[in-house]
Amino acid sequence: MRNAKWLLVGLILTVGGAGLAQGTVDITFWAAPNPPQEVFWKQMAEAYMAVHPGVRITVRQMPEAPTSEAGILAAIAGGVAPTASENIFIGFGGEMARAGAIVPLDTLPGWEDFVRARNMELTIQGWRFADGHYYVLPVYSNAMLFAWRIDILRELGYDRPPRTYSEVLEVGEKLKARYPKKFLWVRGELEVPTWWQRWFDFFPLYYPASGGQQLITGEVITADDRAAVEVLRFLRQMVEKKLLVTEALPYSLEEGHTIMAILGPWTFPFWAEMYPELKYGEHFVLTPPPVPDWWPADEPAKTFADAKGIVFYTQATPEQRQAMWDFIGWVYSKPENDLRWLEITTMPPARDDVAVNELFAAFFKKYPALVSYAENIPYAVPPFVHKEYVELKRVLGAEAIYPTITGELTPEAAWDTWKMLAEKIIKK
Amino acid sequence: MKLRRELGGWLLASPYLLSAAIFFLIPLVWSLSLLFFRWNLITPEREFVGLANFGEALTSPRVWNAMLVTYKFMGIIIPSVMVASIGLALIIHHIPRLKELFAVGFFLPYLASGVAIGLVIQGILSYGSPVNEFLRNVFGTSPRWLRDPFWAVLVISGMIVWKLSGYYALIFVAGLQAIPRELYEAAALDGAGAFTQFRRITLPLLYPAFYTVLVLAVGITLGIFTEPYVLTGGGPALATHTWQLEIYYQAFERFRAGYGATVALINAVVTFVTILIIRRLAESWGARRGFK
């Protein structure tokens, strides 16, 4: 009898629960495999659900099996893709757009109002695909900048970092003359063929040299040959003058073994914990990348944008997509949420007004090193879009950069090799 | 009764059979179904390409290079691991006390994560490490350990030999313990020295252990992945680019599921044939010495 009573209570709760759940939309958001980003999205989801009881958002870290891209592909192939995910760079977004796996965001209701409300009309321009649609909503844009040990530069007699390649080489020679064991730059990954490492060596030099010209546009090589050859020559000259080490030397800038490094904003929370003695302006400064000698002094230098964004998957139902769109719209309708993002992740949100909006001023006052990142967002160029982006970048490292720095090929011959191979890859 | 016993057997074996079906059989059948298609895992339709994937793989310089690199690793690792593990086994065998403790100690590297070991090695061989500082102070230069094709292959081989030796030493220790002491006593009476005893008694009678280790080591070297992935990314100039790295690159970085499956199948065939040849050679060597 007692059991029957409990059975009845259970039945009532189940039926009642089902009734309650009937009007609920379940959506899933995959956050980047980076704990601060997951924290941000979980906070946003909880805040949203508190005022929107009809939506249940599950936020979880995207699987890295073995990479986050492969994890997403496996989910799509298995028919278990989330409603939306972040951490998508434009190249991979292009691949998914071609396969019809993601939704053109500008077809969602109120897209233009959304872009205007988040103040990202300029930033979004670089995210337009060849078919005229926008598939990736940029979340953050990390303009890769050069960090310089200004304390060591001052010892060498400089009060500001060098701007052109000749100036950089001159500084390097002075450094070697005074400190033979120090180097200008350590880039252990320069000789590693891993394709995405080129985002953090070749492209932050190539984009400023070319004024942001993409290597590939559509199915055509549109590279600025003069700029590319000049970048390769610059790398070779640094090796020849023994200013560049292409082996691993961890924390070389922090420890003062080198005076130059390409850094993203994610470096500074680590420094605050491990190297609190490094003060911006006193020990290090940040500048846009160095440029070839011909580059006009009054023209700002472009750089590479390590930028990623959100996509909506076509596997989700229209109802789920709409619910997710409402959620994302809610998040980005409040600039306070972009401030929260900045505070949690230290990566500048992809807005046009990050450097000038008063709302962010207090944060940047506290973290002055990050101001330069915000200021350079308009000059940061996202990577090119092509279905063979992996192979094109691998070949760039293996067949152009590696033979140049080892002296097997001249910069001109190495660049011709890349173009010849790229042509074959594109035509295949 | 017999039926019940059979059912019990199936029941006991079912966890293994189930996991083998889920994690081996289904993926195997699925990858075989990809061989004749071009597919990036996300397009709704797969493009039938016939034998094009095979044609491309068999004429790809990267695939041939991966095969040569794998055999290069095998040529260095197999003899080195044999010498190192037999040496370790002899040490463990002759330790008078706490033999088991030492055996477990030597076995530990086998359990360590390849990624963690890779990161440690990376630190030890980094430009500013004490090892390289010492070499530069004494010789005026230090090798570019992971950026020079010659050194990179040796470093990765050394890592694998270090990892495997302790495990294989345990197999050789078991082999050593199975050799009757009387044989050594009789040889000593006949005037055989320690080296002759080792060459004429120990080594030949270790044949069963030697055979097991050889087959295991060949299988391992044909599947090298973690060490070059962590340390060199397959470089410099593809000097450490193994089969598994090529499969990973094609299937999980370029998302060429069909082509990746094809390279994997060719790798499986090469592995099977290589192990078969090595087994036959080892068996004919053993047969000439009375082992069957």
Topology, element by element:
The complex is a heterodimer of chains A (428) and B (292).
Chain A lengths: L1 H21 L2 E7 L3 H17 L3 E7 L6 H10 L6 E5 L1 H9 L12 H7 L19 E7 L1 E4 L1 H6 L9 H14 L4 E4 L16 H8 L5 E2 L2 E2 L3 H16 L3 E2 L12 E6 L3 H8 L10 E3 L15 E10 L5 H15 L2 H11 L12 H9 L4 H5 L4 E2 L7 H17 L5 H17 L1
Parallel strand pairs in A: 1-2, 1-3, 6-9, 6-10, 12-13
Antiparallel strand pairs in A: 3-12, 4-12, 5-10, 5-11, 7-8
Helix pairs in contact in A: 2-12, 8-9, 9-15, 9-16, 15-16
Chain B lengths: L1 H33 L2 E2 L8 E2 L3 H7 L2 H34 L4 H13 L2 H11 L5 H10 L9 H29 L3 H9 L4 H12 L1 H15 L4 H6 L11 H11 L3 H32 L4
Antiparallel strand pairs in B: 1-2
How would you characterize the overall build of this protein?
- The complex is a heterodimer of chains A (428) and B (292).
- With 428 residues, chain A is α/β, with parallel strands linked by helices.
- Chain A has two domains: 198 residues, D-Maltodextrin-Binding Protein, domain 2 (3-Layer(aba) Sandwich), CATH 3.40.190; 203 residues, D-Maltodextrin-Binding Protein, domain 2 (3-Layer(aba) Sandwich).
- Helices cover 44% and strands 14% of the residues of chain A.
- Chain A is built from 16 helices and 13 strands.
- In chain A, helix 2 runs antiparallel to helix 12, helix 8 crosses helix 9 and helix 15 packs antiparallel against helix 16.
- The radius of gyration of chain A is 24 Å and the shape is globular.
- Chain B has a single domain, classed as MetI-like fold (Orthogonal Bundle), CATH 1.10.3720.10.
- In chain B, a hairpin with an 8-residue loop joins strand 1 and strand 2.
- In chain B, helix 2 packs across helix 13.
- The two termini of chain B are 38 Å apart.
- With 292 residues, chain B is mainly alpha-helical.
- The chains are: A alpha/beta (428), B mainly alpha (292).
